[in-house]
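Deliverable D5.2: sample structural annotation.
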Amino acid sequence: MRRIGVVASCVVRLQTRLVPANPVFPIGYRCRMDSPRERACPSCGAPAATPQRWCLDCGHELPGPRRPGLRPAVGIATTLAVLVGAASAGGYTLLQDDKQPPPPPTTVAQAPPATAPTVALPPATQEPAPYTPAPSTPLPSTSSSSTGGGTSSFDGGSSSSSSGGSTGGSTGTGSSNDGSLQQGTQTRDTTPRQPQFAVSDIALGAAAVAYAPYAAPDVDLGDPSRVVDGSTRTAWKAPAAADPTAPPQLGVYVDLAGKEKIRKLVLETPTPGMSIEIYGATSGPPASITDPGWDHLASRSGTAAETAIKLPTQPYRYVLVWIVGAPPDGARPAISELSLLSLQPE
């Protein structure tokens, strides 16, 4: 509030200096005052009263009364602006004086953690205790065992056998009831184990190819991979023949990617009654059915829905099912599954 009083006193002093209390006008100065005696018609010079608007002599319009100047209003507005600014500055100063600044953060020093002193251990001077072996079970001094017609003895660690297998021995020591040590031998069979074999279908997943050396190049031979997909729901069908009475003269062969001994061929067909021939080749495949590279292995007429054919044990890479006769009802020959059973190691 002291600052507001100082600012107000300064404003009053400023106004006093600008407008003195007893102004002194120079000689010859004439104050401009509007009065009825001083008003006159600008046209004829006849006097006119202050509220009079028209000249009574000539009828000319008289000029209006002079409006007061804006200087007093500007002075009052300036004074009010200075007072408002001073009041705002004083209020802001009071608000700032009431606020207390936040205390500065204090950091508390912490002592470092105490570390336990390291105590050096004296070197060990005690000697380790002597090793004492545990007592073992005594072994018989003499024994005999037979394996496949052979005999073995534990006297001195020697062994003998009359069979084709071989045995090996190991010598060990033991203690008897009186505390004396005895030697003995143990035998084990070192005959190599024979591999185990099982019959499996080697055609499953192999490459199957339609074989039609006498068909036109544009004939659709179908999808022969269906005969080795492991499902009887799918089947390969021979293309329709132009002459139903002529033999089909086509078939499907399986490429085993290597020579294999095949014991049995199993054929499943949805068109029983057709006639087939089985061929095998070690290389090729041969270009035609009359090529000497094909070996004739078996023949079947009027096949059933499932036909098993025993084959010779000679190894072949290509196995061909050649269709030589259609079913009696004239249907297109079809093969749903072709299995080649071979003895394979487990």
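Annotation notes: The chain is about 15% helix and 25% strand. The domain at 199-345 is CATH 2.60.120.260 (Jelly Rolls).
The annotation will be released with the project's public dataset once the embargo ends.
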